[in-house]
Fold each of these.
Amino acid sequence: MFIQEFRSQFYEIIKQKKHALVLVNLDVDAVCACKILLYLFECDHVKFSVLPVSGWKELRDTVEAHSDQNKMMVLINCGGTRSLIDTITPPDDVVFFIIDSHRPFDLDNVFDDERVKILAKREEIDDLNCPPMNEIYYPSDDESEEDGNSSDSAVERSPTKKRNRMADIEQRVAKKQRRARWNKQRGDHLWNYYENSWYSVSSALCMFELAHDLSKSTAELLWCAVVGVTSQYVDGLITDERYISTCVDRLRVHVKRFNHLADSQKNLVDRLRISFDKELALPLYRHWSLYSSMEHDPSIVCRLRLWTQKGARDMHHFLADLGLTLGDCQQLFSALSSEQRKDVVARLQTNSDKYKLTSTVFGSFIASAGYCNSFNAADFARALGVQLEVACTGESAESNFFSALSTMSAFLDTRQKRRNPKLVQCGIETCKTFLEAVVREVYVAINQNHVLPTGAFLLVYMSQGPDLRFFTGRHSIASFARFLLRAFVTASANKFNGRPLVVAVPLSGAYDGWYEVLGIMPLNTADMDGHNKSFIGRAFDRVCDRSSVRVERDHFDSCLIRLKAEDRGRFFNALQAVLETVA
Amino acid sequence: MNALECEFLAENVLLDIVPNFTDDVVHLICGDVGPFEASMVARVPAWLALYLKRRHKCRIVPPDWLTVNGIQEMINTETTQEPFSGVPAHFMELAHLLLRECSDDVPDSDQLKTLVHDMWDSRVAKMRTSTVKFLQSGEQRAELNNLTQMEITYARTSLRAATNHVNVLQANARDSR
């Protein structure tokens, strides 16, 4: 069932029950939404427990383990895309509240009125185009009526028996035809509804708007929402237009309000100031040197083909053309004087068109607090994302989740005003090593021709090596995949422009002998609605239904699955067949 | 007694708040507070005011003396006169609490922080000089007016240790005679 009044139908109910179990998916948007929700719970003395879940199996186990004590469960960024009641089989008195940015929602969840409640606003419900309920579930009233009619007619055993029987048979045939037509229509509806999967508005933003309704919003919560939205943009889950429209429509109002408050009181020092400005799209450039940042930026790498030997020289020419000295570029950005910084940024902005560099600048949020360095929302989102997924030796996903949550809390801690950006800076350092690993793997894949164009799609196996420890989760593998697809399309002179890319990463440890497989859509495919719709998840599902490969479809994102190594040949052949019919 | 305890004791001072909720009288051990009416000023102990503030349920009205001009005047009287000047009760603790927890309700909180610290510095300097003078003079009693709990706490340990030492030395001197 859809809930549109977040405050009265969700928050007040949980406040009355005074206890909630919050289950959170392992992505940055969910971590931010969780932080906002926990802040609201702390303000109102609602007891809560937080647990991260990484897949459907873990969700089921956690719900089973905790369902006798917790009757109210809040699922953040998980659980919306499959029928919750069927997959998890919870006990009858547990109520689930789902705040999920994955779409489309499973129709069983949408039409379950008692136990599953999905938080979504009017515009999103309209966007979803759910088929009406009576076209999916066979209306049982009709059937009982018809049975009643036929039994009534059977009772009347009169001279008109023969005529009645003819009418009876005709009725039954007509009913069967109607049923067949209804089934076909239902099949069409389901096909159209489930065909694509995409991401919609960030859960962190929904939670922030709830906080605003409760008049408990602060600049810190706004920053959480901002990081959530930016993480969707950085991961390529939403299109540019949708990001800009979200920023302008929904976030600008709040940013202005908090800045106005801060300005009117001239409290610049300790308060968190969030500003929206044009920023360079180079990753982590504020915490790195411009040169390194450009070396790891997909658009510049692909434009200048830095994987070739000529590439490095081209880079120097490019910088000379821009009028930037090599010394300036290779120095730490924070070590440059402020005039130099502004000069560099201005040059890159003005010359981006000349070099056909798409998206050198984008509107982004910057947080500055106290006298420490200011942080860009995109860098923050990247740092958190890497912290969530790059497992340090011996640490589990759960501890990664809690360390990411504490990084966010430490940065925003307002109570003792001991705002500690150290954890964020550690995260940024890890992100730098991650980006270096990504670039290395991309270069290896391109130079050694690891990308195999197999008909309808491009396939690449990642090779074993020390860099493999970075690529364990959706964010990391997807960053690699997007980078590689862009580089490969440029390297092969746009021959393979319209093909999706499938990446297979060998796993180790508990899943030795399995591959983590992720598929991404071809470049520049945005739907007319402005969503990045992907049919890869559906294609994987169909392959698994048709052939008997050993696959674990455990992740909440349907584009990511686990495949047994021996079955990979059959899987990819079947995928080829499925994608050919689509394309 | 240390600074944290002084702060705890200071939280008993009554402050004005503007709540954003409506509620009946609340019966507490220290007395009754309320009834609360949204946007109407209520007078509550400071600890309750901070508790409500943290839960975004009220806005704290800073006391009259916590303004730039007010504190500037206090600093002027302090630096021009030799004896301690009269200050509001629990001045330092309250100023500290309010500037830390509700800096959005207090106008010019940055400037106020430096001014309050200046005030503290001048009073503590006076404390130090008078302590030294007292110990050098060898008197048995001294009387100081207008001290607050914080300054007493600040001086207590060192003054106690110093006078003990002086006593021991004087006793030794007497015994040796």
Amino acid sequence: MNYSFQFGEILANGDLLLRGLKLTVLLFVLAFSGALVCGLFIGVARGSSRRVPNLIATAYIELFRNTPVLVQLIWFYYALPALSGWQPTAFTAAALGLFLNTSAYCAEIWRAGLQSLPAGQWEAGRAIGMSEWQLLRRVVVPQALARMVPAFTNRGVELAKMTSIASTITVQELMYEAKMLSTQTFLPLETFTVVAVIYFVLIYPGTLAAYALERRLNSKGA
Amino acid sequence: MANVLPADVLPADATPVLAVEGLRKSFGTNEVLKGIDLKVGAGERIAILGSSGSGKSTFLRCINFMETPSAGRIALDGTPIGTEGRNGALTAKSGELRRLRTRVGMIFQQFNLFPHMSVLENVMEGPVTVKGLPKAEARAKAQDYLKRVGLAEKADQYPQRLSGGQQQRVAIARALAMEPEILLFDEPTSSLDPELVGEVLDVILGLSREGRTMLLVTHELGFAYHFATRVLFLHEGRIHEQGTPDEVLKNPREERTQAFLHRFSAFHF
Amino acid sequence: MQYVWDFRPVWLNFGVLLEGLVNTLKLSGFSIGLGLVIGLVLAMGRLAPTRFLSIPATAIIEFYRNTPPLVHFFWYFYGLPILTGISLTPFAAAAAALSVQSGAFFAEVFRGGIVSVERGQWEAGRAIGMGHAQLMRRVILPQAFRRMIPPLMERSFELVKTTSLAATLTYGELVYKAMVLATQTYRPMEIYSTVAVMFFTVLFLASLGMRAVEHRLARRAAR
Ligand SMILES: Nc1ncnc2c1ncn2[C@@H]1O[C@H](COP(=O)(O)OP(=O)(O)OP(=O)(O)O)[C@@H](O)[C@H]1O
Ligand SMILES: [Mg+2]
């Protein structure tokens, strides 16, 4: 093994990777912020005892959790123009696909979080006349949120990794630029090593935060 | 049957504050309430007794629609609550439900204070979010009610820091802050250590001197005797016997009531 | 605009899709098997009493858990041959990337299961003079195993979904076959919808199976 690495050339093209990185971050922020909110609504429906909302939410969640993201992104890429007549950019299709996918997972986190609250809290709120949304906003979410943050952080980590799949439908994010760079420079080993490290540096703090939050939560519970 | 309606308690023309007619409630195939009729006049204090599983909690919870009645009618001040659905069950729209609950307060066995809010915030919560009162006004009012239950100095503490008795008194203040016409207590002292029961009962007795209309489920027979203007004995989802505390607690006519009271041999008034 | 569905090209070429599905399952099975071995080794390394083992094992686990699998697919397919001089087939590269990546996740499941065994069990084993390896094999792993089964299965389902990325290395699994068919027939919607249904059927049935197993385990534990 006497290969001499040529990282210099990759780093010289840093601006290319940086441009891709911006799009990666944008994808992440759009999909994640949307999914956190949308997940609440789906999660409430999933936990509801009413048949129709429950059925729709369950179907939605199972559908997204039991198919590969790659298939979901490709499907949206083709389905949106065919079904709605609206031609989204690859970026829009990817953001939408990632958002809908992550919403399904966030919904499960919300549902578990909402159910973890003792029934007495719901009853106390209802007994003073709060509406269901007031209850959620003022009583349930503030208490459940702390318990759900580690799970959401983990989900964020998964989403950050998933953004790379957008490259397969030609979204010019980090992974896409990496592929371009590796063919331009004929240095795939260096390129993908550097890109892996970039992803790691970006994502690992999230995992560390989840660990720390979980530890704090466990010690508080004890 | 000993199911005498206390017509003598209510003036003939007065509308009862609460009127329950033919109330039934089933959970699946299990019929828990089998037709309850009750008229409650303003200022009446009703103690509800009965063995475990006789439907006491279910009855109280139907009154403020925490459980939806399977059949029957419930009226507040002569106005019926909810509408009868296809299967005879009562349904109420969410707006009506919320209005009902501001008029009927409830105190739980487990207090159910909001742990993420201070004592004062717990009491302010209903007036601010449900009634839309300005914060300053709600705060002043909350402080008043906390004083009434003897906890003015705990306003800024969080519930976990209080004893069970103090928590239950805060829960009473929280219910009072909605200025309800009727208060429902479901075994308010059952989860308290014996030495803390007294302080809560004192607060409830204080309320009875204000002439509030209250329904209270309890196993504290001695307290029921002093508190109530009327005592109901529930058995298998029906009002088995009712009357004044002296009638029901000292000279029960029904065998079941006698057997029930007998189990509390250690109680004295 | 009303899209007119036409599933005929799908039925005509269903054999191709089935072949893709078989390849997907082949890649999955192989990677799960290898991944479990790698995961066990990594977990043992991470829990080993010496730092010479625990630090590298931890580094590998954390690195692979916190980087996108797609990068690893490309790294193994295009990068690794440069380093070793041996070029990998798409299947080999995908299987290697998947096994190591899933191995990192499996390792954490193993570790979680092992750590969850009560302290008293470790002490009891040590008290009768068992060494670390003996204790693991005879006392800890048999107890931890049952708790590990549901998360291991969950992780395996994730792996099945991740095999779809092998399409980017032109390995003929289900998504790749679909891509080829889509360009041949101009019916991407119908083809990808079918592919989604095929994945869903396999994974949903598998997760139903998992729930049954979990149920059985819970019942047995309750006894
Ligand atoms: N939400 C529910 N679902 C199903 N069954 C219920 C529900 N709530 C109460 N029950 C049943 O209804 C019956 C009466 O319950 P209830 O709580 O009203 O009794 P109780 O008189 O308050 O008893 P206790 O003194 O133990 O509090 C019991 O058999 C109980 O199992
Ligand atoms: Mg009860």
Amino acid sequence: MKGSLRKFDTPLFFLYIAPWLIGFALFFLIPFGTSVFYAFTDARLPGSVDYNFVGLDNFIDMFNNPIFGKSLFNTFYFVVIGVPVVTTGMLLLAMLLNLNVKGIAVFRAFYYLPTLVPIVATVIIWKLVFNSEFGILNAVLSTFGMAKTDWLGGEHTIKPVIIILQVWISGSGVLIFLAALKNVPKHLYEAAHIDGAGRFRNFFHITLPMISPSILFVVIIQTMYNFQLFTEALLLSRGGPNYAAYTFVYNIYKSAFTDLRFNMAMTQSIFLFALISLITFVLMKLSNRFVYYESEK
Amino acid sequence: MKTNGKISLLALTMSIALVAAGCGSNNNSNSSNNSTPATNAGTENTAATPAKEAEPVTITYSQWGTAEELQRTQELLDKFMAANKNITVKMEGKDWGSYWDGLTANAAGGTLPDVFKTSFAFIEKYAELGIFKELDGPLKDVGFDLNNIDPSLLGLHKYKDKQVSLPIDANVIVWYYNKTLFSDPKTNPKGAKEPSLEPTWAEIEEIATKMTLDKNGKNPGEAGFNAKNIVQWGMSISPGSTIDWFLEPELWSNNAKLVNDDGSLALDTPEAKEVMDYFIDITKNKKINTTPAQIEGLGGQVGLAISTGKVAMNPGGNWNINNFKEAKTEYGTTYLPKFKETKTVVQPAGMAVSSSTKNEEAAYKLLAWLAGPEGQTELAKQGYSIPANKAAADAYIATAGEANKIFLDAQKFGIISPFTVKKTDLVWTYGEQSLKLPLAGDGDLEAALKDLASKMK
């Protein structure tokens, strides 16, 4: 009876998983394989029949292109500076929203609302906020006697603006942290209180370790998001000024749709895929040392 | 347990079958009611090749434009379909930016529309992808008279001496001013005169100085002028982000060039530097021109700045009159201001037939109609676009009026500067990033030019 069930379960398993498998093959495996193929050719359009294999030429071209270097630098800026800033911002907001004060549910709803607004609309709103001439921010700053700043047109200000925008739309991460904070057992704090622990000690020795799996999850998601940052760079300043917001994915888009070199875009995409995979792998490996899984203890 | 498993299996199989059937039925209904545009039309007509006169055929046509422009094109297509009962044309319209992304994606996916709009600036770049049909033979076959179209316009739609696209309009760049600002003493307290038909930059600078006002009504150069609180600007230009349609003709106006014959950057000559330094000076020092940040705050479009009511003059294309009419802006027009000679850019949009079309005969018919006397006269009668076909010139004047005759007259000042792949890269890929801020006086121009020249190599 048991044996026959297993026999029956195996095809059933594959049948149940078939929709996903088909989707995975159609929308990932085949396009990925095609991209790898064309990355080693001079075909400017996918589907071209008239092409030559060029070996590693596209990869060499990619590394020799100064714009590639700039876009990689900008992307690392967002990953190295943006991810910690945004994650910290999410955690601080979650801790605020975890307080037991009157009307906290309303605050939680308000902080989540920006996440529901489409990113294009959000970017347009922030363009108005940061506009140097007519923006609200400069208007407020000028009341304190501060000079107008060209936030969107400055090479040194555009990247921080994009990071601030990410904090604004960080509602999903805040929810994840909030759920994690709610799950920290109260008795741990009570025991720590009896032992004389203060707020900071509680935070660093109880809260942070207990929510560390959520932190890892958010950091990985944020890292991938920042490696693929595109919409904000495109809509806020079209990658400018002087390539200051030219992100890696924006460069891929320009290679394909402006330079009409899909082979180069595919080369860059493969490089990005390898980069994200490597960094995610490193993060996962490092997580063994920093992440506390209560269920495994 | 075993029974439950079988039931699950059956249920899943039925669900998949149902979904598959649903998809199938959708496809069927789409093809039968003929309501889907591009892709279905292409599939539907595969069997109809070659299209015969009497056999009904559906072709796709794609172009960029605003909602109003697309509506006007639909009116033209309706007239074409009325004259060619067996041909149905499905139009796909997009805005300028997404149009090119869409066309590229279509080329990549093998789903190009049968006939589509082209820009002279992208002919070489897209021709290299092999997306155009060569038109010389087919046009000869249908007896299309190319003599009615200016050779310079035809030349801009050739690739390797082969006609791959036919010009359909001859858009031209002129200088606009807001008549209301000039006539109102509140916005023109110094009584600046409207610019002359063929103004020099000295004249424009004088007018712009008078028309630039701070919040206390003072002009630049006056004692107490507050440059941080300008409420009205004399002009709005952004040479670094309008390289192809403003900076280049101005360079020519001063006997300079944008690119050399070998495709390298030509901005290192004294004449070119004189032009660039002048634009920096009027923006950074004289404060009579908007900065890029101010342009963003005014809506982000240099060509429409006068419609905000805060700018007296700006360069723009003939198509901008639609926007001014919609914004109820009373506008006046002159030729572009000159350094030494008046120059402008003629930007002919065109029509091309996809190299992969399965409906050649119908596609050529549509192309020949839109670019020929009949379609061009209908286009001219709408009064918005300047027809490229001379056979329709009278119809344009009759509709658009003498006031808009300047758009036809300005064409004699058009520079002959074809778009090569290198020039397209300069204008659309590298130029704006490098020059937008330096040409407004923000950043090191020399370093930007050096950087740009190296990228052009």
